[in-house]
Specification:
This is Acetyl-coenzyme A synthetase. InterPro entries: Ac_CoA_lig, ACAS_N, AMP-bd_C, AMP-bd_C_sf, AMP-binding_CS, AMP-dep_synth/lig_dom, ANL_N_sf. The chain is globular. The strands form nine sheets. The chain has a seven-stranded mixed β-sheet, sandwiched between helices. It is α/β, with parallel strands linked by helices. It is built from 21 helices and 31 strands. The protein has two domains: 387 residues, Rossmann fold (3-Layer(aba) Sandwich), CATH 3.40.50.12780; 125 residues, ANL, C-terminal domain (GMP Synthetase, Chain A, domain 3), CATH 3.30.300. Bound molecules: adenosine-5'-triphosphate (ATP) and magnesium ion. The site of magnesium ion (MG) has 3 residues, from loops. Adenosine-5'-triphosphate binds next to β25 and β26.
């Protein structure tokens, strides 16, 4: 039995929704989606209000997804212009640099002026509605300005994470045929400089990139760059003399707002294309409800704008809701392990949203770096990106939030646009490791291997059986791959690619990616459960578990374990950990192999890439596939050298 944390009564007393509101609104949202989303859609400023709300078919032979289709709007007008009257002097963005001395506050009025000037800049460079613009910037306010300026013109942005290599950047430019690339001289990360402009120069040498007419360079660090005339232009010179007046271009609700590539945990990244109207309705509404947003909140999501979390919950959701959003350029452990908590105190952050990978890394360092800071301003915590191990959840709750702050564990994907399964903090009691219940309008289902929908307590593949407004509309330039990836395995449904379990309270537990499920003697085991058991051991900081060939069981369990700072692996500890998992879950989950891992292969967004570990566990080190989206490809060599099956 997992632990249940009831809703904090004082939090609930002041929150937007209680449990019976959730029950009532959820029932309405799934029984009458048109009525529900028609009403919620009115939260936006429409240039032409929609009369048609939903037109969707998930049938692979007639696939179409349209929301608010005859409506017209502009995203930047919703995020900026309409805030001016009430919130013109409110801070829209708090920028916190990599260097703790570097921070800046930008009001809605200032942001509006910058966006208009930059939109005029793009217009003068010939950017028109429908053009693609690649954004390869650090986490600086110019990234948000660039995104909003594209939206103002109806240009489609493709943000590429600043940590990606020239090859990854080139691949995305080729795929989207971008006309303009927006970058900076350099980025900063943990005191080091990242050569962004040099990377752009290298990317643009690659074949297929000559769609790019202009490269706009933000002078950020002041590092020397080579400017190639007439292609390369400085942001600040282009902005000189631009008017701060730029009428927003009305676009149809289904017009693409952006294309964004998935993080590549399971293979070649997919260019996920999102809409304008449905997307903005869904993400602004989830942002308001899941974070129980109030006018005076200081909201901080640590995600990079290169990921969907940065799009929906650093830039568009908060600004559309008139919130104050923090943009952080740095990392959790620079200059030291207290950085997150120092930033929280410095800016009086009240809502904090981060990823399990960061929580586990900080947990490794113990409680002292957290306790050095006050954190008294915090009232709500969030998690996203991977299943959060119950151990990490408890630590986040107890040490970071001092048992005062509810945790929202939010399950969603690049493809879903926004949060799909999550507690509403004033309404839903939480269980560590469970994303709990579906958001309004979201209809999850669990199917077995044959595709039969399971009722009640169940485990299997997670589907969504009906559309929601924030859903992906296609894979850019490859509609066939879109249909095949998401709608063919279980026709009539959206297939998430994740596995889940539903418990006796109807709560959902994400068990990991379906591709990663291990089948031991006919029992299906999700990676999350075994990993969480390992992480629950006081000496274990992180663990990744994969299946490996096993003569008797079909598949065996191969575990990679990173120990907490100061511990070293020994045969005794290996035996202890194996016995520990056996005791925690049962004999079926006993690891057959346990390898010490000084580092685990992770994507740039911090997700463990198990397909690589599977190949190492299968003794196929020459078949690792694409490892270009790894944050640190060098960890792979050690794991290959030390592998236990050769
Ligand atoms: P690719 O699709 O290219 O393999 P990716 O799936 O890692 O990449 P994202 O869209 O960034 O790219 O990640 C979504 C995935 O992250 C989900 O499908 C799920 O596996 C995992 N995830 C996100 N949030 C949670 C959560 N709260 N609990 C469990 N898993 C989560
Ligand atoms: Mg995915």
């Amino acid at each position: 039995m997992s632990k249940l944390y009831p809703v904090n009564p004082s939090f609930a007393a002041a929150s937007r929704l209680r449990r019976d509101d959730y029950t009532r609104l959820y029932a309405e949202s799934v029984s009458d989606p048109e009525g529900f989303w028609g009403r919620i859609g009115q939260r936006l400023d429409w240039i032409k209000p929609p009369t048609k709300i939903k037109d969707v078919s998930f049938d692979p032979k007639d696939l179409h997804i349209r929301w608010y289709e005859d409506g017209e709007l502009n995203v930047s007008a919703n995020c900026l212009d309409r805030q001016l009257e009430k919130r013109g002097d409110k801070v829209a963005i708090i920028f916190e640099g990599d260097d703790p001395k570097d921070s800046r506050r930008i009001t809605y009025r200032e942001l509006h002026a910058e966006v208009c000037k930059f939109a005029n800049t793009l217009k003068h460079l010939g950017v028109v509605k429908g053009d693609r613009v690649a954004i390869y910037l650090p986490m600086i306010p110019e990234a948000a300005v660039a995104m909003l300026a594209c939206a103002r013109l109806g240009a489609i942005h493709s943000v590429v994470f600043g940590g990606f290599s020239p090859d990854s950047l080139a691949g995305r430019i080729v795929d989207s045929q971008a006309k303009v690339v927006i970058t900076a001289d350099e980025g900063r990360r943990a005191g080091k400089h990242i050569p962004l402009k040099v990377n752009v120069d290298a990317a643009l040498e690659r074949p297929g990139t000559n769609s790019v007419e202009t490269v706009i360079v933000v002078r950020h660090t002041g590092g020397a760059v080579h400017m190639q005339s007439p292609r390369d232009r400085y942001w600040h010179t282009l902005m000189e003399g631009q008017s701060a007046d730029c009428a927003p271009t009305p676009v149809e609700a289904e017009h693409p707002l952006f294309v964004l590539y998935t993080s590549g945990s399971t293979g070649k990244p997919k260019g996920v294309q999102h809409s304008t109207g449905g997307y903005l309705v869904f993400i602004s509404y989830t942002h308001e409800q899941v974070f129980d947003l109030r006018e005076d909140d200081i909201y901080w999501c640590t995600a990079d704008v290169g990921w969907v979390t940065g799009h929906s919950y650093v830039v568009y959701g908060p600004l559309c809701n008139g919130a104050t959003t923090v943009m952080f350029e740095g990392v959790p452990n620079y200059p030291d392990h207290s950085r997150f908590w120092q930033v929280i105190d410095k800016h009086q952050v009240s809502i904090f949203y981060t990823a399990p990978t960061a929580i586990r890394a900080l947990m490794r360092e113990g409680e002292a770096p957290v306790k050095k800071c006050s954190r008294a301003s915090l009232r709500l915590l969030g998690s996203v990106g991977e299943p959060i191990n119950p151990e990490a959840w408890e630590w986040y709750y107890r040490v970071v939030g001092e048992e005062r702050c509810p945790i929202v564990d939010t399950w969603w994907q690049t493809e879903t646009g926004g949060i799909m399964i999550s507690p509403l903090p004033g309404a839903i009691a939480t269980k560590p490791g469970s994303a709990t219940l579906p958001f309004f309008g979201v209809k999850p289902a669990i199917v077995d291997a044959e595709g039969t929908v399971q009722e009640g307590v169940a485990e299997g593949n997670l589907l969504i059986t009906d559309s929601w407004p924030g859903q992906v509309r296609t894979i850019y330039g490859d509609h066939q791959r879109f249909i095949e990836t998401y709608f063919s395995a279980y026709p009539g449904n959206y297939f998430s690619g994740d596995g889940a379990r539903r418990d006796e309270d109807g709560y959902y537990w994400i068990t990991g990616r379906v591709d990663d499920v291990i089948n031991v003697s006919g029992h299906r085991l999700g990676t999350a459960e075994v990993e969480s058991a390992l992480v629950a051991h006081p000496k274990v900081a992180e663990a990744a578990v994969v299946g490996c060939p096993h003569e008797i069981k079909g598949q065996g369990i191969y575990a990679y374990v990173t120990l907490v700072a100061g511990e070293t692996g020994s045969d005794g500890l290996r035996k202890e950990l194996i016995a520990w998992v056996r005791k925690e879950i049962g004999p079926i989950a006993t690891p057959d192999y346990l390898q010490w891992a000084p580092g685990l292969p992770k994507t740039r967004s911090g997700k463990i890439m198990r397909r690589i570990l599977r190949k190492i566990g299968e003794n196929l080190p020459d078949q690792l596939g694409d490892i270009t989206t790894l944050a640190d490809p060098s960890v792979v060599k050690n794991l290959v050298d030390e592998r236990l099956i050769k």
